[in-house]
Write a structure and sequence with these properties.
The chain has 200 residues and is an alpha/beta fold. Helix content is 30%, strand content 25%.
Length: 200
Amino acid sequence: MPNSTPRLILASSSRYRHELLSRLRLPFQAISPDIDETPAPGEAPAVLALRLSVEKARAIAARHPDCIVIGSDQVATVDGQPIGKPGDFARARLQLRALAGQTVEFHSALAVTDGQRVEKTDVVTLCRFRPLTDAAIDAYLRAEEPYDTAGSAKAESLGIALMESIRSDDPTAIIGLPLIALTAMLATFGLDPLTAGTPA
């Protein structure tokens, strides 16, 4: 690898984001940014996600100069109200009951910085949940245990069966790291997945 190739860091401990970034076949390391993620008073969920993605990237970039750092954060909302991660079966069941027949708006915020310049964006995904019976909800939760996922559904796997429709410009955004937007951003920092880091 040429010395001029930038070092890439994913400012996240999420295994989902790690797996997604691995698709680009770029060498990288993942470091938890360990920042305060408390919303500011009156802060809209989408604004929060974008702010946190920038703060995560900047926090790691400050400790690792001459690196390109990726920060990302995701919030899910219904009618502008945030939806959290359920944490357990009982809360996930209540969440899916409430979301049945509803449209959930996922904001997948993304930031890339080299310590000087910051590029950022918010990729929106609209997920329409189909009507769900309690039996279907319980069967899904036992099969997948999506308790660390906002909305209690993993659309990249069996959770897709809960959906009536998904609308987005980027199919990876719903999983937590919008790779189409990320590829374009990395290119502006001189790091193109098609010409750097890919095995010959």
